[in-house]
Structures are given as structure tokens and as C-alpha cells.
């Protein structure tokens, strides 16, 4: 497959090897660790495959325990915790080479009608995604051409990502920057009509830029890295149906960073301003010269 969106759908199509056990591919990448969004998305697929399919997922809570190894399959073991009249709950353990690398608990809810609704409006108005440059275009404008590694990554990237604010490239440019970031995103091709696939694809995407908000006041997002970053946990609440192959706005902020950890919050809207998903993540941040052998995965 040459289309990155098709590769993503294939990556999320787990092999069932027992009643509650699934196996997912882990592509051989140049990254030192498996991308955390991949593990979260695959784990959610495993959870969803053990339900009747009539209850969309409404929340997930996950912990990254150990770094996953690229190129090595990951086994997902599902525990059927509860099948109630309105809610279904699943716990998923991701195992690689005999070691637990990730835990996820997901809850599925039968949609209910006739209840009250409210929503705060988006925090700010932003330009349409079509008016913004792609990351590759911004890098080319700054550097004149794409580095080979970034060129390869751009060809394989399953999501089109466009930063609302221009990228900052120097320490001078980040002076006084607030810990906020916003991007438009969508899959680079059709993902089909299975809502679980769209939910898991967006779960994959939700881990791609969220910790940017923590980094922005400290160092440019592109160029030499001064900090090693790793996701510690990840939580999502799904409010409305959506398609991950249509544009969505990912508005991100970091209310606090202290003690080597940074907290990031994200709100995902459709083009009409409807709040689709809420996300919270905490990440570990350490200077690159500090050695660390604990759990986590790098942010892309």
C-alpha cells in the first residue's frame, strides 16, 4: 500500500488470535520507540472488537509503562470488565516480548436522546485549513528544501497537519510565547465508514502534537532538541460522532509544567465549532544529557 491513510487502516486492523487476544503489527521505523498513538489506537481497536458494536466509545484512560520496540508485534489482551444496560467497560493490556508496555481502560455508552446540552464556544477564531501551509511547505520556506529524514516522514505521514500559528525557529522567536498551540488535521485519504476506525485513527492522531504546548515556551518545535520527551498517560472523552478524514481543529494548551512533567489539554472541534473530543496528557521532560531508562515513547 502506498497511501498513508490505507496503511493506517491496515495498521489498526488487528489479527484475532484468541477470544479476547489480538495481535498488532509494529512497523520497523527509524524511531527508537513505538509511537504511543499507534499503541493507544490499536488497544482501542482490541477493546471495540469485543463489544457488540452498537455502543460508541465515550472515554479512555491509558498509561504508557515501557517503550515499545519497532518491528516487534504487540499482543493486546482484553478483559471484559462489565456489560451493563447502558455502559460496556473493557481493560486492555499491551504486551511485547513478555513485558507489559501499556494499559488502557475504555468505556462504551449506548447513545441517549432527550437530555440537555451545552458547550462553551471555541477559545479563538482561526483561519481555514486551506489557507494555511503544510508543515513541509513551512520547512521548505525556511530551509529551502526538506531534509531527507523529514522527506521520508512526510511521505509516510497518515495525517495532514497545518499549524495555525507560524512555526518558530529560534530561541529569540519563542521569547514570551504562551504554552498554547493549535493545528488543523485530517487523514490524508478516506478511512471508510466504520466509526470505530475513525475513533481509533483520531486516537492515533491525538498523540502527535499535544505536548507541543508544553515545549513552545522552552524551545522551537523544529530543529535541534534540548529535551527528551515521553508520554506518561493519556485520557480522552468522545462527545460527538466525527470523521477523522475530514478537517478537525486541535486546540492545545499547557496549564502547568513542573518537576520534570508537563500537563497538556486539548479540545478537538469540527469546522462548525462543535466540540468533538477532549484530551488530557502528561509528559515527562528531561534535558537530553540526562540518561533515563524508564517507560515512555517519543513524541513525533
* Order of adjacent strands in the largest pleated sheet: 1-2-4-5-6-3-9-12-11-10-8-7
Largest sheet report: 12 strands, antiparallel
The overall strand count is 12
Instruction: Enumerate the spans where pLDDT stays under 50 for 5 or more consecutive residues.
Output: 291-300
Structural class: alpha+beta
Mean pLDDT: 90
The helical percent reads 10-25%
Number of helices: 7
Order of helices and strands: HEEHEEEEHHEHEHHEEEE
Report, as a whole number of angstroms, the end-to-end distance. 22 Å
Shape: globular
Roughly how many Å is the radius of gyration?
Answer: 19 Å
Strand content: 35-45%
Short description:
Strand 5 and strand 6 form a beta hairpin. With 300 residues, the chain is α+β, with helices and mostly antiparallel strands.
Could you walk me through the main structural features you see in this protein, from its secondary elements to its overall organization?
This protein is α+β, with helices and mostly antiparallel strands. The chain is 20% helix and 35% strand. Strands 1-2-4-5-6-3-9-12-11-10-8-7 form a 12-stranded antiparallel beta sheet. A hairpin with a 3-residue loop joins strand 4 and strand 5 (87-96).
List the helices and strands and how they pair.
Layout: H1 4-11, E1 15-18, E2 21-24, H2 36-49, E3 57-64, E4 74-83, E5 87-96, E6 99-109, H3 135-143, H4 148-156, E7 159-163, H5 171-174, E8 180-187, H6 195-206, H7 212-215, E9 227-238, E10 248-258, E11 261-269, E12 275-287
Antiparallel strand pairs: 1-2, 2-4, 3-6, 3-9, 4-5, 5-6, 7-8, 8-10, 9-12, 10-11, 11-12
Amino acid at each position: 500500500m502506498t497511501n498513508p491513510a490505507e496503511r493506517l487502516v491496515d495498521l489498526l486492523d488487528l489479527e484475532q488470535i484468541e477470544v479476547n487476544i489480538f495481535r498488532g503489527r509494529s512497523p520497523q521505523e527509524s524511531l527508537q520507540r513505538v509511537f504511543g498513538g499507534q499503541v493507544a489506537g490499536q488497544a482501542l481497536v482490541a477493546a471495540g472488537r469485543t463489544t457488540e458494536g452498537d455502543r460508541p466509545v465515550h472515554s479512555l484512560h491509558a498509561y504508557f509503562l515501557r517503550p515499545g520496540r519497532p518491528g516487534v508485534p504487540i499482543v493486546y489482551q482484553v478483559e471484559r470488565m462489565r456489560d451493563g444496560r447502558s455502559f460496556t467497560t473493557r481493560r486492555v493490556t499491551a504486551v511485547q516480548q513478555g513485558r507489559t508496555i501499556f494499559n488502557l481502560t475504555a468505556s462504551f455508552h449506548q447513545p441517549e436522546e432527550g437530555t440537555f446540552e451545552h458547550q462553551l464556544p471555541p477559545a479563538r477564531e482561526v483561519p481555514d485549513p486551506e489557507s494555511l501551509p503544510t508543515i513541509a511547505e513551512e520547512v521548505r520556506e525556511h530551509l529551502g528544501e526538506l531534509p531527507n529524514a523529514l522527506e521520508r516522514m512526510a511521505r509516510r505521514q497518515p495525517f495532514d497537519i497545518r499549524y495555525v500559528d507560524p512555526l518558530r525557529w529560534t530561541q529569540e522567536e519563542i521569547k514570551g510565547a504562551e504554552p498554547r498551540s493549535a493545528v488543523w488535521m485530517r487523514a490524508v485519504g478516506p478511512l471508510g465508514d466504520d466509526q470505530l476506525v475513525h475513533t481509533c485513527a483520531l486516537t492515533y492522531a491525538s498523540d502527535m502534537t499535544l505536548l507541543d504546548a508544553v515545549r513552545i515556551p522552552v524551545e522551537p518545535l523544529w530543529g535541534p532538541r534540548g529535551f527528551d520527551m515521553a508520554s506518561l498517560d493519556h485520557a480522552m472523552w468522545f462527545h460527538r460522532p466525527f470523521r477523522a478524514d475530514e478537517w478537525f481543529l486541535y486546540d492545545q494548551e499547557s496549564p502547568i509544567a513542573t518537576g520534570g512533567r508537563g500537563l497538556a489539554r486539548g479540545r478537538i472541534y469540527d469546522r462548525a465549532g462543535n466540540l468533538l473530543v477532549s484530551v488530557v496528557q502528561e509528559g515527562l521532560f528531561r534535558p537530553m544529557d540526562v540518561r533515563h531508562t524508564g517507560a515512555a515513547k517519543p513524541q513525533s
